[in-house]
Specification:
By secondary structure, this protein is α+β, with helices and mostly antiparallel strands. It has nine helices and ten strands.
Length: 269
């Protein structure tokens, strides 16, 4: 009656499984790969960024006029090789461009903002249940001995470089970003000039920094997503969860004792 099955062992799957455990469910996690987490996982390959500010969609007003030049530029950020498949993509492309209308961009930004405001708090419950302190050292989960004392979380803020941070377009986008994120009480952001950018990131070139940037002081990222995945997996098993992978069945009883001790040490650290 209180049993649940979760398919997929990435961040979404593990978080869902841990939240279900908190609610009293007996949970089985199904993973098609050889193991949960690891370097082959899609979750391991992401940036691990907690980006409440990232509510502005890729599509934007005027994109239809810029897209052709972007596509044919061999050194541009967007490059599409000629292929018969492009014909089949036309309905999607037209829908994408239609979503670039100002009203739809605003609607999308507010939808994304409402979700992103809840993201970190949503993970906190899962980490707590797994016995993980993301501000504590990675310990045995670190990718190498030199980083064992480093925290899972790198709370260094985030810089979003601009061509001209004071330009009208940049200001309008910033206003939308702030409104969609819940206002200044929910999102701290500051316009900084080139000298401010280089003070925060001295390795950047003057050319890259010349337009200034938006500075998000509270932005942070996970130093090593694979390390956090492994810690969440062990916390799930330590709480009685069962994992079944593509290589066969893996029961919680085989690793509960060692996982429990490692999870508690991470939490106390």
């Amino acid at each position: 009656k209180n049993a649940a099955v979760v398919v997929g062992g990435g961040f979404v799957g593990l978080s869902s499984a841990l939240h279900l455990q908190r609610s009293g469910f007996r949970v089985t996690l199904m993973e098609a790969g050889e193991r949960v987490g690891g370097r082959q996982s899609a979750s391991n390959g992401n940036a691990g960024t907690f980006a409440q500010y990232a509510c502005i969609p890729v599509q934007r007003p005027g994109l239809w006029a810029e897209a052709p030049g972007m596509i044919v530029n061999p050194r541009g950020a967007l490059r599409i090789a000629p292929s018969p498949h492009l014909v089949r993509m036309m309905p999607w492309a037209l829908g994408f461009l239609a979503a670039s209308e100002p009203d739809r961009v605003r609607k999308t930004a507010f939808a994304l903002g409402s979700i992103l405001q809840l993201a970190e708090d949503g993970y906190k419950g899962a980490w707590e249940h797994a016995g993980i302190d993301v501000d504590g050292p990675m310990g045995k989960y670190a990718p190498n001995d030199a980083t064992r004392s480093h925290a899972f979380a790198a709370r260094n803020g985030y810089i979003l470089l601009q061509n001209d941070v004071h330009a009208r377009g940049a200001r309008e986008t910033a206003t939308l970003r702030l409104d969609a994120s819940g206002g200044p009480e929910r999102l701290r952001m500051e316009a900084i000039d080139a000298s401010g950018v280089l003070e925060l990131e001295p390795s950047l070139s003057e050319r890259a920094a010349r337009g200034g940037a938006w500075w998000f002081e509270d932005g942070w990222f996970v130093r090593d997503p694979a390390a956090l995945l492994d810690a969440m997996r062990d916390g799930f098993e330590a709480n009685g969860g069962e994992i079944r992978t593509g290589s066969g069945r893996r029961r919680s009883s085989s690793s509960s004792s060692s996982s429990s001790s490692s999870s508690s040490s991470s939490s106390s650290s």
